[in-house]
Records
---
Amino acid sequence: MQNIDNLHCMSNWKNFITQLEKDLTFWIGSLLYFFSYRLFLILSLADKDLSEFNVKELLDVLYIGLRFDLVPSTIIIMLPLIFSLACLFGKNSLLANKVRLKTLWLAVLLTLFLSLVNFFFFKEYKEQFNYWIFGIIYDDQIAILKTIWQDSPVIWFFIIWITGSWGLVWIIKKLILLRPIRLTLIQDLNNKYLQGIFLLVLCVLLIGGLRGGYRNRPIQIKDIEKTQDSFLNKTIPNFYKALENTIKIYRRNSDLNRLPSWTPNNDIRQASQIFFGKYCPKIDKCLEKTANGALLKSKPQHIFLLIMESYDLWSFFPPYNELGLTANGQELAKKGLFWTNFTSAGGGTMPTVSSIISGVPQVGLQFAYQKNMQLPQPTSIAEIFKALGYKTKFYYGGYLSWQNVGRFVTSQGFDEVIGANTIAPDFPFGDWGIPDKDLFNYVAADTIKETKPTLNVILSLSYHRPFKIDIWQEGFVPPKLNAETQSLNDSKDALAVLGHFWYSDKVLGEFVRKVEGKFKNSLFIITGDHWSRKGLTQKYSNIYQQNAVPLIIYGSRVLKSVLSLPAFKKQFKNGELRAPGDSLDIVPTVVELIAPKGFRYHTYGNNLFGLSKKLFATGGTSEVILGKDFMFEVDNPNYIYVRDGKPLESLGEAVNKQNLERLIQLHFARKAIAWWQTMRGNELN
C-alpha cells in the first residue's frame, strides 16, 4: 500500500511540474512582450536616432524596465500557478489547463488593449499614462468619443486589437503545448525533502518577481530617474505601473486626511516656511501684496485676457516664424510687451484656465469639482478686478457644462458667464463649440453695450481637434516648407493642423483691431492654455518648445507711458522680456499696471516687470521649472535646457546643484500650500 501511495505522490509531482513548465512559458512570453513593447516605444517615438543614444543609458533603461515588467508578469501567472499547485493533491491537470487558457485570453486582451491606448497616449502627451486619463471622466465624453471616431483609426484599432490578441493567444498556446522549457531533473525528484526545498525556492522566486528583484525595497516609480534623457526615463515603467501610479497619486491628492507626497518632510508648516519665509496660520495673509502704483497714465477702459487654445511659442521664432502662422501675434508682440520665458499653469485647457480664474497653482486635482473651490478664492481674478472697479465677464465658445467650467467660473465671482448656447443659440455648432470668429465677434459686439469698464476673459477653442473649420474659405495659403521646417508636414492632417493654427491667429488679429478701433484705451493680454502637441513632431521638439507659450500685453495707446520707461528698455533683449513667468503671474503683472499705490490683493504669482526679482516659474505640460535662461523638468533635473544654445557653464551659479534643489523645494512647497488651500481651506494648521 505504501508503494502505491508513493507512486501516486510521484504522479502528482510530475503533473505539477508539467503544469509549472506551462506557467513558466506563459511567464517568459509575458516578459518578452513587455520588453518588445518598450523597445518599440523607443524606436518609434524617440526624439532622436537610436545611434545617438548613450549605449550604457539604453541598457540601464532596458534593465530597470525588465525589473518593472517582472511584477505584472508574475501577477498574471499567479492564478494558473495556484491551480498547478493543486495538482500536488489530486488529478487537477484539466482544470489547471482551463484556468490557464482563460487567464491567457484575459491577460492578452487587456494587455494589448492598454498597449495600443498607451502608445497613442504617449504619442500625444509625450509620456505614458498620467493624470490626463481622468479627463475622460470630467470632460465632455460625447465630444471626446466623436472626435476620436472622426480623427483616429478606431476601426483599425479594434481590428488590430482583436486579431492581434487572437494571434498572441495562438502563439503562446502553441508554446505552452510544446513546453520549450523542460524541468526534467526537477520532475524526477522523488525525495520529499528535495521537493520541499524546490517549492521553497519557487516561493522565493515568486517574491522576487512580485518585488521586481531582490533589492532592499521593491521597485518603485522613483527608480525611473535612471538617465539624463527624459524620453528614455518615461519609457522605463510599463503601462500597468504607469496606470497604477497615476491612480495612486490622484487618490492620495484627493484624500483630505493625507498630505501629498511632495509636501516637504510631510510637514505643511515647513512648506509654509520654505515658500513664504515664515509660518502662516492663514494662507491669505501671506499671499497679500501691495501695489506699487499704476504704471499706466490712464486706466484701460476695457481689458481683454485671451486664453488661446494651444497657442504656443515655437512659431514665433526661426525657422518657423517665417511661415506666417502667427503673423498677428508676432506683430502685437513687437508693438507691445512680449515675454518668451513663459509657460502655462498646466498641460491642458482646464488646468490652466482654472488656475488663472482662481489664482491657485495646479496640484493635479480638478478644481471645478472641489468643495472648497466653490467659493471665491482671495486670489480670484474676478474678485481682484471687481475691487479695481471692473465688471467681470467670461466668454467661452463651447458648452459651459464642459468640465463644469460655467459653474466654476461663476463660483469665483464673475458677474457674467457666457457660453456658446448664448452666443449662437440657433447655430449648429460642432461637438466642441463655435468657431473663434463667431466668439470674438460676439465679444466685440457685447462690449459696445457696456457703459462701465470691463475685464473680459475669453477662452478660444478653434485650434483643437476635430479641425473642421473651412480654413480655405478663410484664405489659408499653405506655407512653403523647407528642410528646416519640413518636420511640420509629417502627418496626414498636417495642413489642417497648420491651417487652424493660422486661423486662430488670424481672427485674433481681426478682433484686436476691431475692438481697438472702437475703444482706443483697451488693454489686451494674450497667452496660450498649453502647448499644442500638434505643431511640431516629437522628434523635432525640445522641452522648451513643448512647454513655452507666449505672454503678450498690448495696447497701442495705454502702453505708451510704460514702453518709454528706461527701466523697461533695459530689460528688453531683441524685443523680448526674459523674466521667467507662468499663468499665475498674469494677474499681479496687470494689477501693477493699473492699480493705485497701496491697493491690496492676493496672489501666488509675481509682477513680471522686474520691479521684484523673479526666481522661478513653474507649470507646463511636463511640470517644468524656468529660470531666467534655462528650463528643466522637475522629474529630471539632470537635463537642463539652455536658451540661445549657450553652454550650461555660462549660467554659473544659477544652475548649480544647490540652486536647482532650492527651486525644486520652492516648487513643491508652493504646490503643498495650494493643495491645502484647495482641499482644506485658508487655515493652515
Note: DSSP finds 23 helices and 17 strands in the chain.
---
Amino acid sequence: MTLNKTLLAILISTSLMAGCNNSDDEVTPVPDNNAVTPPPDTSVVALTNLDTVYGYASENGGTTGGSGENKVEVTVCTGEEMINAIQNKDPARPLTIWVNGAITLQNAKNSRIDIKDVSDLSILGLGTQGEMAGIGFNIVRANNIIIRNLRIHHVRANLGAPGDGISMEGPVRNIWIDHNEIYNSLTVNDPALTDDQVKDYYDGLVDAKGDAQFITISFNKFHNSWKTSLSGSSDSDNFERTLTYHHNHWQNVNSRLPLFRYGKGHIYNNYYDGALESGINSRMGAVIRIEHNHFANMRNPVMSMYSQEPGYWQLIDNLFENISWVESPADGIVAGANPQSTGELNVPYNYQANLIPVHNVKATVLAYAGVGKIDTPPSPGLCAVPEPVEPTPDPDPVPIDPIDPPAQVDWASYDGSQDPFAANAVVLADGTLSQFARQQSGGADEPNLFSLNGDGTVRFDSTASGADRSRAKLTNVLPDDGVYPKFFTLLMGIKGNVGGNRILETEIALGDLAASSDTSRLKIVFRNDGNNSGVQLENANNGSSVTAGKGNEPDAIDMSVYRVYHFTISMTSPTTGNVAVYVEGNNTPLLALEGVTMRPASTNTDNYLQIGDAGSSSYLGDIDWVLWSNAGAYTPQMLKGLLPTDIGDITGYEAQP
C-alpha cells in the first residue's frame, strides 16, 4: 500500500511539473473511467526477526529464558532427563534444555512436565526432532520461560495433569511460547464415548489461568482441537492477564481462539482457517486489540458469549473471508457482518517492525508458523531406542471385596440440613465434627451454589452460569499409610431435575502421603441430559468413561426422581481396583468394573471427598444426605438396617424383617 501511494505521488508531481513547463497550453485533466485497481499484494513478507520477542512478553524486563551469561545447556532424550534437569537447575544460572526426540508418558514416568518455582529457562526442540507426545507442560509460579520449536500433541485430559499442551497457572510472568505445533484430535476412536466425552477427552492447547501476565504466543500452528486456548478458567477467575497472540496459524478447530476473560489481549497478524463454532470470544470485561488478522472459512470470528458480562474489542484492518455470522442474543453478541469496535486498547510496547499488511498475513504465516522454521544447533545424533523390557506376568487376581456383612458401620455423614460449608455440618466416623471447605479457581474463592431447601435437603444450582465452578471438599477421608487393599463405600440420597440439566458431580481421590507415583480417583457425574443421562464414571474403565442406566439403553433409569445411589471401591494397588454402582438398595449392581486401571489423581497425595461442579456445564439437583466409610466395600445387602435412621429418606436400606 505504501509503494502505491509513493508511485501516485510521483505521478502527480511529474504531471504538475509538466503543466508548469508548458504554460502556453492549458491542460485539462481527463478522468480515466476504465482505471483498474491492482489486486492487493498477497506474497510472503520476508521476516528476519524471528528470534525477537514482541508483545507483552517484551515488557517487564523482557523474556530471555535460558540465554545470558553463565548459562547452562543440556540435551535430553527422555522426559525423565527433562524433569531432572528442571528440578536440579541452579537458580543462579540460566538453563536451556534441547529436546532431541520424543518425550512421552512412559519415558517421563510422570503424567506431566512441571515447570514450577523456576526462572530463566528455555526448552527448545532440535531441528524438527523435539516432540511432546501425549504429555504437556504445567507452568506454575514461574518467571522468564521460553518454549519453542516443539511438536506438542494428544495430551489427554484424564491422566492426572491439567490436560493442556501448555498450561500456565499464575502467578507466572514473562512466558514466550513460539514456533510450536500443538494439536489434539476432533475425534476419538471409542464408540462408547458420548459427544461430550469426546470433547472432554483432550483439553486446551495453550491455557492461562489465574495471575498470568506478560505472555506472548507467536508463530505457532494450532489445529484439530475442541478447546483451543483460553485466558481465564471461569467467570470468577478475575486477574489482569496480559497476553499477545501474533502470527499464529489456527486451523480446523472448534472454538476458543482464544476465549479471553478479564485483562488485556493483543491479537495481530494471525491466520484463521476453519472454526466450527467460534473464534475470538472476549468476556467479563476483557479488552482485546484485534489487528491485521485474516479470518477465513469460519463462524463468528469475533464475539462475546456465554458469560455474565461482555468483553470488548478494537478492530483494526482485519480481513474476513467466507464467514458466517450466527446471532445468539440470549448468550451475548457477535461482531456481525458489519463489525465495529466496542472498545479501545493502546498497548505499551512497540511492535511496528513485526506488523505486516493484512493481505500478506496468510502467505507469511503459512511460511513461518510451526516447527523447523528457526535455526537450532545440529543434533548430536538420534536418541537411542531403549531395550524392550520383558513383561512380567500378572499374578492371579485375589478377591478383595468383603464377603461378610459388618455388625455395625461407623459412618461419616452429611445430612443436608446445613450448608456444607457451615461449621459442624459433617459428623466424622469417630463422632467429631467437621465441615466441607470451599475451593478456589484461579486463586479466587468459587461461588457457593449450595442453598437450603428448608426441609432437611440442600440444593445445588449452577444453571445461572454453567461456567462457574463450585466445589465442597473434605480431605483425609481414607487412610494414608500406603497399605493395600483400600476400601471406600459411598451412599448419596439425591433427587434430580426435570429440565434436562446435569445434576451433581462427586469425586473421591484415593491418594496417600506414602505415594511416590500415580494414585487414583473416581469422578461420578449424575446426569439427566437426554441420551447422556445416568450415572457416569469418567475415565474409570482403563481410561474410558462408562455410564450406568444410560438414557438411550434398555436399563435407563429416571434421574429426575429421588433415589439412593451406592458406590463401592476396592483398590488392590494405587492405580487398579474394583468399582460397583448400586441403586435403591438393589443388591445386583447396575455397573461393575473389576481389575481396572482408574483415573489418576491430580496429585499423588490427593485424599478427599468432593461434591459440586468442577466443569463448565449447568447442574441442578437436591441432596438429602451423604454417607461414607473406609472400613469396607459393602454391598446393599450388607447394609440393610445399618444406615442411620434419622438422616433422611433411606428407602431400600431399612432393616429386614
Note: Residues 1-25 have pLDDT under 50 and may be disordered.
